Amino acid sequence: MGKEQIRKEMIGKEKIDMLYINVCADDINLGVDVDGTLTKEIIGKDILSLPPKEVEKAMLNCTPKDGIDVLFQNDFAVYIITGRQEKYRGATAGWLDMYGIPYKELNMFPDDFYILNGYSVPKYIELKLDIHIRKNVHFSLDDNEQLINTLNEHGIPACKVEDSFKDAFEKVFELNGGIKNGILERKHGKNIENMQQLQIPKFVAK
Question: What is the pLDDT of residues 114-149, one digit of tens each?
Fold first, then answer.
């Protein structure tokens, strides 16, 4: 079965019940990781140590996680924020395009990041946090628990994506109401009178 057919079946295989949440009418910026978040596989240092062509091949052959079709259902401004290096922009963008994943920006690490910092977790988290802040991300989905904790500590609601992307997407909206308040406060401070309803998909198993 071709990847385009897989994507079509993915989009149509869930029954969607619309859940209405009051949020601001203008763009909501969603930060989304790639490896282990959108993809089932993780392109780690073992793969990154291979020749570039092999790395690109591995990236293009990644399998999407269940439920990424939630990104097709809303008009969020999606900011892809990945630890992949800039030199792999082509392969990463190619994979996103292959599965029709909409995004506003693809943010990647500098080519020399791992040369200068090795695989330092604090440096990795520091740069990812900086990108989230600079891009004014309102909530984020990732697979790195340390990053998720750091984002939450800095007032950016974040949730871990495990087996299902859609489950994490829905869960982030149920964090004690914090997602709505966090978005409103980050976007408008205390002036949150200009609101309208936005449809957020709530997935129901068959």
Answer: 999 999 999 999 999 999 999 999 889 999 999 999
Task: Find the helix or strand (DSSP H, E) in which 119 lies.
Answer: none
Rg (CA), the chain: 17
HSE of 44, CA atoms in CB hemisphere, 13 A? 8
Rounded alpha-carbon distances, angstroms, from residue 201 to 12, 78, 116, 183, 198: 13, 16, 42, 18, 10
Beta bridge partners of 184: none
By three-state DSSP, how is residue 3 classified?
helix
Strands 195-204 and 15-24: antiparallel
Q: How far apart are CA 94 and CA 178, in angstroms?
A: 35
Residue 206 has pLDDT above 90, yes or no: no
Residue 193 sits in a domain whose CATH number is 3.40.50.1000
Q: Is the pTM of this model over 0.85?
A: no
| CB of 160 closer than 8 Å to CB of 32 | no
Q: Cα(67)–Cα(10) distance, rounded to whole angstroms?
A: 7
User: DSSP 3-state assignment of 73?
Assistant: coil
Q: Which domain holds residue 192?
A: 3-204
Q: How confident is the model at residue 160 (pLDDT cuts 50, 70, 90)?
A: confident
How many domains does the chain divide into? Answer: 1
